[in-house]
Amino acid sequence: MPGVSESPSQKPLLRALAGEAVWPPPMWLMRQAGRYLPEYREIRAEAGDFIALCTAPAMAAEVTLQPIRRYGMDGAILFSDILMVPWAMGQPLHFAEGEGPMLEPVRDAAAIGQLDPSVCAANAAPIIETVRLVRAGLAEEAPRTTLIGFAGSPFTVACYMVEGHGSRDFAAARGMAYGDPALFGRLIRILIDASADYLCAQADAGAEVLMLFDSWAGLLAPSQFRRWVIEPTASLVRAIRKRHPTIPLIGFPRLAGPMLAEYAQRTGVQCLGVDTSMDLRWAASAVPPSMCLQGNLDPLSLVTGGMALETEARSILGAMRGRPFIFNLGHGIEKVTSPENVSTLVRLVRTG
Ligand code: 1CP
């Protein structure tokens, strides 16, 4: 909208993150740019492989904006992947069709010694350029939409780096954490430094919020959760705060269960992403009342649609009314989701 300039404080998502009970709540969906959208599949085919798409700024910016154009979401999440941090430090990575990410595993001191966190942000320059293009695109097309930058949390990224691929239990990574905590700690330290630089570069380029995806945090025993999730996240948050003292941060320690309370208290994030397994009312009782929550619709209810979707969405809205909240899924959107069901959900949430 030419001539309309919106100050950041008027963006609903930023107001919720600042502790305001905005109603109807701002919304976006994890993995909202993706294979369920025909317009995404078209650009994905044009780009060739997934890494090529993530490192082609014009195309990556375009797919970031697609769900904003279609649905008017309040949040636009940078199109990239958590594994672009190891990629930017030189760890060989490819995405095998239908199999997910494959990395050359780092399992000993020699391999971990090769990783240089100081080159990450520079090698990620095309992704930082995408952030710039998306921010400019939003200013023109969707001035109320907030740009969310992201990285994986050190523990979850370390899981993939050590294991070399996705896994149900990440036994090699968790085994290293028990068997050689000094070595695993070196890897975590490298990831804190690299991710801090990378996230600050995103903020410098126009990201207004930063989200930390800790998809595998819930695999850890409490002592390990404190050591490998809470402490490194707190350290990463402090490093970001030195350079960007006020940028809002969303932490998503998936399947953390009751450890969520300690995570909320000790990491320094403003907002907690809540996964599908957790009762939102319990989460609200476990964190300070001014702390924003985000979540947690079951992605499967969005695949199903109809009454199941309506019942689940209304129950979340009922539980969160009157507190700072961002409507989202409890995990990424499924690729079999019908785009029409997403329209239905947007209408439901918009009418509060
Ligand atoms: O072929 C394709 O189109 C690739 C599929 C795909 C997509 C669309 C992958 C591979 N990553 C992404 C994008 C992505 N990944 C985003 C983009 C922004 C958005 O949300 O719209 C984000 C935020 C991520 C984050 C991510 N990647 C996470 C954390 C969130 C989560 O889902 O738990 C994780 C664990 C990954 C690793 C990854 N990348 C891709 C896949 C299939 C996986 C999961 C691998 C596995 O463990 O099986």
TrEMBL record:
It comes from Belnapia arida. The lineage of its organism: Bacteria, Pseudomonadati, Pseudomonadota, Alphaproteobacteria, Acetobacterales. Pathway: Porphyrin-containing compound metabolism; protoporphyrin-IX biosynthesis; coproporphyrinogen-III from 5-aminolevulinate: step 4/4. Catalyzes the decarboxylation of four acetate groups of uroporphyrinogen-III to yield coproporphyrinogen-III. HAMAP family: URO_D. The keyword Cytoplasm applies. The gene is hemE. This is Uroporphyrinogen decarboxylase. It catalyses: uroporphyrinogen III + 4 H(+) = coproporphyrinogen III + 4 CO2. Residues 26-35, 148-164 form the Uroporphyrinogen decarboxylase (URO-D) domain. Homodimer. One of its GO terms (molecular function) is uroporphyrinogen decarboxylase activity. The keyword Electron transport does not apply. It is found in: Cytoplasm. It comes from the Bacteria. Its EC number is 4.1.1.37.
